[in-house]
Amino acid sequence: MSGRVRVNASRRYDVVIDRNVLDEAGERIRAVNSGSVICLVTDDTVDAIYGARVENSLTAAGYRVEKFVIPHGEESKTPENYLKLINFMAGKGLSGGDAAVALGGGVVGDLTGFAAATYRRGIGFIQLPTTLLAAVDSSVGGKTAVDLPGGKNLLGAFYQPELVLCDCETFKTLEKQTFRDGCAEIIKYGMIKDAALFDKLADTSLAGSEEVVMRCVEIKRDVVEADERDTGPRKLLNFGHTVGHAVELLNHYELTHGSAVAVGMAVVTRASVKLGFCGAECRDELIKLIKAYGLPTETNFTAAQLAGAMMADKKRSGRTIDLIIPETIGRCVIRKTPVEELESFVSAGL
Ligand code: NAD
Ligand code: GLY
């Protein structure tokens, strides 16, 4: 099964979901970009597995390819690498009609997107996501950024890609935990918007399938089209993330993002049941599904520690924090919560 999702945001583009579509990258990019040079950005791990295939396909489509490789991992999503990349593009003579192509996970995608958004005030940008998380989340919707010492994603821009090519075959080479991190995001989509997707995920073998990836991308598309600049309903995508970020911070980022989000979804849902926002069945089904994917649902941190870390979250506005609260499976709401109530809320979820 292959598919295509059309995103109608400040730029209109397709997300193509198919197996082995990386081999068609050149011709498919040629259809949306008439430039002559491609800056292919990737990390060392992804480059070793997929770099040559993509480079060959781009060359066959008539592009001169200039490859920029970063070490893998979040530590590479820095202003220093951003500037190195920009200088690399300038040194290779990329002009306004040329493009940057991100081949990799969310780290490569976010860094490349920010460089593409700002080099010469914006050049072509194409995403080739190779992690499940990047396929269902970071490659779609136009959030681009690098991290600052003061926090993650603090320097960035909204910049939609011209095309996303998602090759589900690439998930086969992911480390187990990296795949699981993407599963947490898929469970999130089921919880916030689609009970049928949630039910389907009981068959864990479907997590990286084209069918499931496409449904997640459709949900993300709908949310992004409703609120591209993240001032309202897009915040629903943060379900589990505010508590999750606190867990990550307190763990000094030793727990993976997906695991932290899984804990966050469980904490918020347990609290929501105690406070009467949703039924116990919703909590029990969510926790069962999270566990089926080998993800955690508990944390040893105290409510005071978690609430303290949540207060440092950049998404806080003044004296309230937006919590994403489940009402039932497939429906969540944004609830402005006074910061004074955070600790007791979290305490109800532990
Ligand atoms: P990542 O990019 O660090 O990739 C995880 C690891 O998997 C890396 O070591 C990478 O080398 C390896 N890898 C990637 N593809 C592979 C493959 N097919 N086979 C083998 N190994 C492979 O992490 P991620 O989880 O993809 O993305 C996390 C980043 O995404 C964070 O920086 C986060 O802030 C960002 N993010 C952005 C958005 C957005 O909307 N822009 C949304 C969610 C997350
Ligand atoms: N991953 C959150 C967003 O795109 O808004």
Describe the structure.
By secondary structure, this protein is α/β, with parallel strands linked by helices. Helices cover about 45% and strands about 20% of the residues. It has 13 helices and eleven strands. Strands 1-2-9-6-5-3-4 form a seven-stranded mixed beta sheet. Strands 7-8 form a two-stranded antiparallel sheet. It has a two-stranded antiparallel sheet with strand order 10-11. Strand 5 (about 100-105), helix 4 (about 105-120) and strand 6 form a beta-alpha-beta unit. Helix 10 (about 255-275) runs antiparallel to helix 11. The protein starts with a strand and ends with a helix. The model has no long low-confidence stretch (mean pLDDT about 95). The chain binds nicotinamide-adenine-dinucleotide and glycine (GLY). Nicotinamide-adenine-dinucleotide binds next to helix 2, helix 4, helix 5, strand 8 and helix 6.
- Bound molecule kinds, no repeats: nicotinamide-adenine-dinucleotide, glycine
Oligomer: single chain
* Strand percentage: 15-25%
| Radius of gyration over C-alpha positions, nearest whole angstrom | 20 Å
Number of strands: 11
What general outline do the C-alpha atoms trace?
globular
Tell me about the biggest sheet? 7 strands, mixed
Give the N-terminus to C-terminus distance in angstroms: 41 Å
Q: What's the order of the H and E elements?
A: EEHEHEHEHEHEEEHHHHHHHEEH
Kindly name the structural category: alpha/beta
- Look at the structure and give the mean pLDDT: 96
Query: Segments where pLDDT lies below 50 for 5+ residues?
Result: none
Question: What's the tally of helices?
Answer: 13
Percent helix: 40-55%
Strand order of the largest sheet: 1-2-9-6-5-3-4
